[in-house]
Structure formats: structure tokens, C-alpha cells
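Comment thread on ticket #2218

A.B. wrote:
> Attaching the input chain for the structure job we discussed in standup.
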Amino acid sequence: MLAKGKRKDNGKWITGYPFTYGIEDEWYFVPEFTNKLKTVPVEKKTICRYTGEMLSDGRRLHEYDKVEVKDTNGNKISGIIRFGTYQSCFDSTATAHIGFFVDWQDCYWRKDLGYWVNSDRLEIVGSTKD
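C.D. wrote:
> Ran it. Output below, let me know if you need it in another format.
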């Protein structure tokens, strides 16, 4: 599973493949782009799974990313990329889905991530792990 996390040595984001062994709170990444096997210690609380989706500008969407869209009046609506069970807020009997979704601060927006990935309106503005 590809993810991003903050390095323990300098606090900078790194992309790679997380793993742990021995002590549960000690996590490491094998960096995504490396020509030799090396490990980098990362802060466990900063690990964010890659959703498998990218914006049109090539930036990857990760769990816990803060995102924004503008509504028709130009107001910014904020959300957070999450993983779990979600369903339409309009119909409590709607089918529940499991996966990555956008948890909007205002419930009337679509939650399915696939819809927003294909929209030029979605912007990544940070991470809740910053």
C-alpha cells in the first residue's frame, strides 16, 4: 500500500510503503523511488494512505488531505478525504458504500471521491496531519 508520512528525522513528507516490525509504534517507509532497499523512520500518526486517485494536475489524493471546492457563489466549501462507510445524506435508506470519500463540512455535497477527482473544482489545501 502506497502512503505518505512525515519523517522522524526532519518532519518532511515522504512517499513510500509503510511497515512495522517488533515494537508496534515504530513505523518505517521503504521510499517509493529508490534503487536499493533502505528504510526511513516515520511518525505513525502522520501515515496517510494513497487513495489511488490523482487530480488533473497530477497531485495524488491521500487519506486526511484537506480539500476545497467553490460553490456557484464562489464560497469555499471544505472537506477531508477519509476511508470508511459513507452514504448519501439525502436518503437514510440509501445503500452504504465503503471506500475513500470526501467528508464535507456541509452535508449536501456528493461524498463519492470519483465524482470530485474528475472535477476541475477540487483543490488540495493541506492535510489534517500537518
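A.B. wrote:
> Thanks. Noting for the ticket: The radius of gyration is 17 Å.
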